[in-house]
Each structure stands twice: as C-alpha cells, then as structure tokens.
Amino acid sequence: MTTRAIAEAIGQRLGLPTSSVAPDAAADHFGWIGMFFGLPMAASSTITRHKLGWTPTGPTLLEDIADGPYFAV
User: Domain of life, per the record (predicted)?
Assistant: First the structure.
C-alpha cells in the first residue's frame, strides 16, 4: 500500500484534495516524518501469518479509513 493511497483515502474523508510532493521536498513539507516517505520500507504480514497461523479478519487499512470513526463530526 502506498502513502499516496492512504493520503487520498484520508483526503476523501475530509473532503480535501491531495497532491504529490517530490521526494526531495518531503522533509520540508511533512517535517521530521517526511524523511521516511522516500525510503524503501515495504511491510508484509506473510511471516506472521505463516509462523502464527494468523488470518486477518478485520477491514483493510483503506476500508478502515473509509468506514472508521476517525472523522466523526
């Protein structure tokens, strides 16, 4: 899942447009956390699923952003 997909889902819930930020401008735009956006930090639940026999049953992150209570007015 990309940072872009997460930002677009949040923007949609807030009714705000999203825009791209160049990797070299991320730190200036996002502050300290911006340096992480350009790094190759892919994550996977494959090992956890295999070692623990875990099968996720809840919503995906994007489903949770779309339907969760985080943006209640």
Answer: Bacteria
Domain boundaries in the chain?
3-71
Model's pTM, two decimal places?
0.78
Give the Cα separation of 31 and 26 in Å (integer): 8
Q: Which residue's entry shows tokens 């949609």?
A: 12
Residue 13 DSSP label: H
Q: How far apart are CA 48 and CA 45, in angstroms?
A: 5
Interatomic CA distance for residues 39 and 36, integer angstroms: 5
Residues 60-71: pLDDT tens digits?
Answer: 999 999 999 998
CB of 2 closer than 8 Å to CB of 10: no
- Report the Cα–Cα distance between both ends of the chain, in Å, rounded: 27
Greatest pairwise CA separation for the chain in angstroms: 42
